[in-house]
Structure formats: structure tokens, C-alpha cells
Fold this protein.
Amino acid sequence: MDSVSHYCFSYLVCRGTGTAPTAKVGLAAAGIALLPDLDFLLLPVLPELARFAFHRGPSHSLFIAVAMGLLLSPILSRWLGLRWPRAFLLCALAWASHIFLDMCTGFGVALWWPFSHARVSFDLLFVVDPLATLPLLVACVWDACANWKLSVGRRRVALLGLLLWSVYAAVSFSIRTTLEREFLAELDRRGHAVLDIHLEPTPFNNQLWYLCGKTDEGFVITYRSIWDGKRWERLTTLPQIQEPLADFAIPPLEKKMTVVLEDWFTCRFVNPDQLHVVDLRLGKRYGWEDDDAPFLFVYRLQNIGSSETRWSMEKPANRYNFGRLKSLFARMMGSIPNQRLEPMPMPEDSSFGTNRKPLLAETSETNR
């Protein structure tokens, strides 16, 4: 989630549980909750293999939350005038609340690092969702202003803010469950043997979702709003080609990518020395309106020798603007573009699993 949400959520958690007895202590705890996202500062000095999926990795582990509580509690105890057990609980809880909020998004966290790099995610919220952040922000400011001069602040406002956020998260869970059931029924109606399903909210809302189904034939992706009714966007199929990763990447990188991406990826060759690994979990940028939209997460592997493989992230060149946001809002309300409603057979894409250059529609700007 964004930094504002992390700050306010951790403040309310520490205040609502009574771990932070005053607003000033709550603000200090909220500042601690921002520390896990500073892991990106270490990226330039890490070995190339360690940089893969490092963000939301070690710093977002429960074990690190406990370790940071032990490390920072003496400082907090002296600075805030708290007893050591309360200072430890305050730090660990603030750190853990950051982890929990990130678990609500699709990218997830490495909750059990160092024992596993696997991501744990609830897939309930987009990383920036104003409707999820607003009650947290209002409650945080309200509680801080109301309790600033009190030696033991009242917790009602903090608990109310957490309750409102919980209601929004529960609504997202209900929507996700409903769309999952509808998607399963639609795939079954079309004769697909479904192995697994992944759902992800689109930017800034919980009304429109990206749907990805794993079948015997490969992957089936589409977008669906809770206001679509009986209408469906065209379903797009992609092949499940994962074998090239094991043949192309060196074992440590291949193993780590397989654990982090699980089975939600497919591969395509750009040329004999370059492979794209497409992460299918988070969908495409503007995919609800544009068939040619690039996937959000594409990893480029470059073979530079018999025993060395370099990787980099492909970054979509297009950005959000007023027109895009207007289109997104219309699609949230169930307005499916006509071209997305018309059934069109998916053309064979020879870029997947071959040595040919991928279609221009699938390419994206390299993040250098």
C-alpha cells in the first residue's frame, strides 16, 4: 500500500489496541511502520540475484518484525519514556501492521522469510485505493487532534477508523468471492477444465477486477465489474510455457522466480539469448480497454555466458491521465467497450516459446 495508508493504519492499530497510550506515541509508532519500505535503498548494493523480489521480501517478514522490535525497543523506551515490554510491543506491532496491510494487496509479502521466498497475499486491495485510505486518514487526524494533550488518550476514534476500513476490506472480499464464483461458472460453461483462479482489483477501486484462470490448455484472462450483469468481456487465452525458464536461467535465479511467481507465469523468447518471463498475476495496464496493453510485470532475462544470466524489469511506457481515469471509472460502472464485447479468436502468438520477436503489442519500454 501507499505510505499514507501505512502511516495512518499503523497509528490506528497501535492507538486502538492501547499499545500507544497517547497520540504522540502513536505518531512515533506510525513512523516506525514506514521503515519496511526502505528496503529499496539497499537494492543498488545487493548482488543481482538478491535484488530479485527483494522489495517486500526480508523486511516484510514476521521474524524481522520481531527482530526490529528487539533492536529498536531500547531506543523507543528511552525516547518515549516507555517500559521495555511496551516499547518492544509497540515497535513489533507497528512493523507487523505494515506487513498485514501489504498482504491485502496482490503483490503480497515474503511473510516466512528466510525459510521461504513465497509471497502471501489476500488479493483484496490495489496498492493505491483512495476509498480504503480515506477513513484511515480522517480517523488518524481526528484522533491525534482530540487526544494530543491527554496523558491517556481515548481509543474510540481509532477503533472507529479501523472498523470502517475493515468494512471496506470485507466488501472487497465479498466482491472477490462473487466474481470468483461467476468466473468459475463461465469457464465451465465454455468447456475449460479449471485448475486454479486468481483475482486482482484494478487501480484505485474494488469494483473492477482482473481475472486469470489456469486451465489444462493454459491461462484465460479477462476483466469484470460487479455491474456487468450477464455480459462478459472477451476472454483471452495464453499458453502456459514455463519450461524455458529452467533451461535459460541459472539454478538460483530459476528457483527463486519459480517460488515467487508460483505457476502464474509464461515465457516467450525475444531472441536465442533473451527470454521474457511474464507475470500474469497483476494483469495488464489498461487491459480492460486495450487488447494490446502491456503486462505490468515482465522480467527480461539476458544470457551473457554459459553460466550467467542477467535480469531486468520491463516497464510499461504508458501512464495514467484524465482520459484513462475517466475510461476506468466508466468501466467500473459496467460500461464494456464494444470491441471488448465482440468475440474474437485469439491469434496464434508465435513469440511464446519460440525464438522470434514478440508482437509489438506485447512489447514495453525497458526500465533501465
About this structure: The chain has two domains: 3-171, 190-362. The mean pLDDT is 89.
